[in-house]
Amino acid sequence: MPSFLFMKEKPVETTLYAELIRRGLPADYAKRTAEELDDHRVDLLANLRAAGAANPEAVADERLGKTRVLAKRIARDYHRRSWFGRWPLVSFVVLPPLVLATAWTGVVLVLFGVGKIWTWSGGAPGEIWSPVEYTRLSWGLALGVFSFLVPAVVAWFYGRVVLQTTQSRMLVLTACLGIGLLNSLPRHSYRIDPAKPELAMNLISVPFCDPMDAASLRQLASPVAASQLLTPVLIGVILVWRDNSRRRTSLLAISDGSEPARVAA
To answer: How far is CA 178 from CA 151, 153, 167, in A?
Structure first.
């Protein structure tokens, strides 16, 4: 008897299970859904045969609908269970830069609090580093945390949310690109006057806010800016590649007639 789960009489790519995997549903959910529809189809065939229907299998297939159409409806209902899935454009085009800005603010508050606690406990940077060393160290820390670590974490989080709530892997790259565009704007630098090293300071500038400054605008095409832009995008590419690998693994398991490997997205 043909089966939605492992339909040996038909090419494996026509099964409902395979279609659900292709549309981004988790392997265990797709398998469970296909098994439930298998049971429903068996009951439907039994009722049709008991009623004396001619060609009951054709009638059952007509009632259940085409596999691709059924898979599309199941995937749409699955993805729309969450707010992200119901409003994908707002969730993955508008919100990602705002989430990055919020994450930056949170990190600033945490670092400010740590600095205050350190000061209240009697510590001082000057006791460990010179003003110039402290300025360079804090510049490197700010560049690494704000321009690379925080955007990478936000991009990873958003990429996983996209893969779990929508069937569009293109939205992964869209969300990561929005994060990268915002991340490419801030510039971290420091100023040290050899005559007055105690006045060394870190600077943060946003070239986009000064469109008349040609020197600032040229910074948008600098290697650092390109790295800040591409870091979140690279995270998105990695997530899409891992998702493709997961789907291929599940589809190969179906073609072998074995249980699908449960691979994390």
So the answer is: 11, 14, 19
